[in-house]
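Quick one - first record:
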Amino acid sequence: MVAAPLTEPSPGPRPRRRAAARTRRTARRRIVADRAARLLVSAGGIGIILSILGILAFIVIEIWPLTRGAQVEPLAAVAVPGREFVALTSDEYRSYAVGVESDGAISVVRLADGAVTGTEPFLGMPPGETPGAAPADAVTAAGANPGEPVLTLATGDGRVALRRVHWDVTFDGDLRVMTPRLDPPVVFAFDTAGATLGAYAARVAEDGTGAAAAWLGEAGGLSVLRRRARENLLTGEVTESFEVSRLASPEAPALLVLDRAQRNLYAGTAGGRLLWWDLTTGEPAPKLVEAGAAVTALSLLIGDRALVVGQRDGSLSAWFPVRQDDLGFLLTRVRDFPAHPGAIDLLSPSMRSKGFVAAGGGLLGLYHNTSHRTLWRGPPPVERPCDLFLAPRGNEILLAASGEIGRVAVDNPHPEATLGSLFGEVWYEGYEEPEYVWQSTGGSDDFEPKLSLTPLLVGTLKGTFYSLLLAIPLAVLGAMYLSQFMHPVYQRYVKPTVEIMAALPTVVLGFLAGLWLAPRLEKAFPSLLLMLVALPLLVVAAGALWHRLPRRIRGRFPTGFEALLFVGVLALGIWGCIALTLPLERLLFGGSFPAWLNHTTGMTYDQRNAVVVGLAMGFAVIPIIFAISEDAFSNVPRNLVAGALALGANRWQTVTRVVLPTASPGIFSAIMIGFGRAVGETMIVLMATGNTPIMDWSPFNGFRTLSANIAVEIPEAPVGGTLYRTLFLAALVLFALTFLVNTAAELVRQRLRNRYSQL
């Protein structure tokens, strides 16, 4: 009897339909989940890209105004019938102009409609005279002092007078009301002995307690009269004293300029020479330099260090004293600006920056000295101007002419910013030669901003170099040893410990580096030099001794014990090097390494220097490079290692000739990521470098990086100002630097990957 085959009963149609429905629902859920995940990942990636592009766009928008030139627009001239002004000044809101007329009267003109709201004699109201009457003696010259609201006047009988203009601001509701107020005249009476007063100069002292005037007579005698006013704090009585100095002049000056500190007197001659008297030395003879054509205009810029010279042939140049090796300070021609078609007649400096306006040869020009920039040139709005004045905020130019005042509106927010001034060498006032300098602020408004980003870029690369000099060998070789040689038991502890180092706050590392490590390293720097030589030799010697031990002795220790042996050797070597600091310093460096360094090489040892930063920032960068490099070593296919060992290569040959080349793309990526981490580091370099923006690759000096500079300067930078936008430019430079390095790294990584992918 044959048994029938055992078969499972087939499910009925209803269970099959249920199973098919569940399968379809599962497949649909998977499809939905896959699509949702794809959309989520895509949205996240696109969001990151858009965020980066948004940040970049914001930075570019903030920087863009730096590229704009001056926007200049001539306005309608203000008619002042019957008035002929020879000197002008104005308030910062351009509401009124105060001018000296050719007959010696001071008039106040409302610029909105040209109405004259007040007139009085420059030298005060003589008894029995009416307002507007001229002085008893003819006016020979009048002017406005460079960079300050002070009007000056000279008369034919040997008097020089100054009057300072003040502007009182009041409000009528929301309407601002400007009211000019003039100080009483300060009058200097020179003994002209019947001669006509020639060239003159007058200034009010910086502290407001005195004034000085210089006068040139017909016979060529040059006199300087100084007035000092002292107030008795108890009685309020003011005592005046006068001091007269006689100066020798080899040539009759055509123009005189005196600085506010009353220490320097400058002159220009018709023979094309510049004369400079240092009034603090008591020497009557001037220092003389050749300028070329006849000097027709002369003015000091704000700060009274730079002298702008206009000449008959249209030349326009800037000069300032520069120290020479054997001759002390000499006036030096530092910059030449584009020449005018004719003689330079008028100059007016800015009260806020190193800019100035020049007129001559039918041309009006706006210039900036520090950036060596020609901001605008064009025809003046009036014919034959008698005087020129740049408004206190630099937003308007006033030109005095017969019966009218010309007006030119100026929008010039960032005259200091050019590619040359931001990245090139600039010859600053008081410097012996052009230099790269970052010094954004000073103690007064006279300060010349120095905004070169080059020292900051060099400092960024310097800090990165010294930190990677420590981090790359330790991180890469440590990752190689951990991945290829260390026992797995120890790997489980060492790798997480190193990676935890990345979690240490950089502010803590910077604090320790600046306040704990820096002073100790200064005292024990010779021991650090000894460690660089002794520790590698001790490790090699310890390895050789361990390898030469008999196998029966080495076998008593657990596998991987040699790592602990090396740790002990390193600890012993570090202790020994530190213990030998004082004997080594006495033997090799005369008892003091910083003193020996300065005496031998001329370099100074700053306590917070690049070595300190290299140690601290290298400690912060090591975990990143180590973790990525270890992954690159571990991801090398095991069949390559096994094949090399099977062909007879030892472990070291296999690692260096097979594993290392194969892992090189990942190692290179790790180094570049570490580079980016070091470039962008802020807190460590902020606290451990001293923040000195100098151009020096010495490891014993400090530096300032782009990121640290942004952190230091941005809280104090006026929003929308040149410094504010320059800091955004520094951020863009940092962004571009990391982008270019990462792009180049990716190209190199792909090339290495293609090269070793066939192994």
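second record:
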Amino acid sequence: MVRRALAISVLLGALLPPGAAAGRQLSQVSGQIDATNVHYSSTLLRVSPVRTGVSWRVIDLNDEIELVNRSHETVTVFGYDGERYVRILAGGAVQVNENSPAYYLNQSFFAGGVQPPPNATARAQPDWVTVAKTGSFVWHDHRIHWYSNRTPYIVKDVHRTTLVFHWKVPFEVGAVRGDLYGKLVWIGEKPVSFPIGAIIAFVVLLIASVAFVVVVRRRRAAPGATPKPKREAW
């Protein structure tokens, strides 16, 4: 099951050497502290099937998915254990299933950050709660990002772009099942670089200025130097 896979991945991540933690950005999302790692990029590659009036996109680099439903059918997104997690009705009403484990797990950036209550299971009867009537919904999805604060073992060189994994998110439009297909990529750390040429030019100019000042002062202090004429007071 996906939840078990996520838990195993977090455990493996804890055994890996630290690396990516410095690249996180913090923001406040749905009452939770959300950490988006800027070293990753999650890309939506393909939607199957494509339906007119239904659009999807990954936002915030690798953090969230946005669903917009302007069609005449209900669009449902499934959670990590295959349960119905969120749906947008044909009229635009957005409903979340509060008996879905994904409803609670998605409130934390890392898997396992929030534990679902006992009533939230994949086999529980859906408890649909309307949260908006906008026809659009944005949610955090653990399937599209790296779920640990440690660098993936597959990243051998942190300065090189590396494919971490391909991902899939199941959904349903009307009675037709489909999937979002995408990939997560480590986009690397840019090495720290300094403008060496500009620094050298500045140092040379500074040395030349200091040398000029020293020479002028020495000439003025020389014994044979011509004194400045004094102004007569009228």
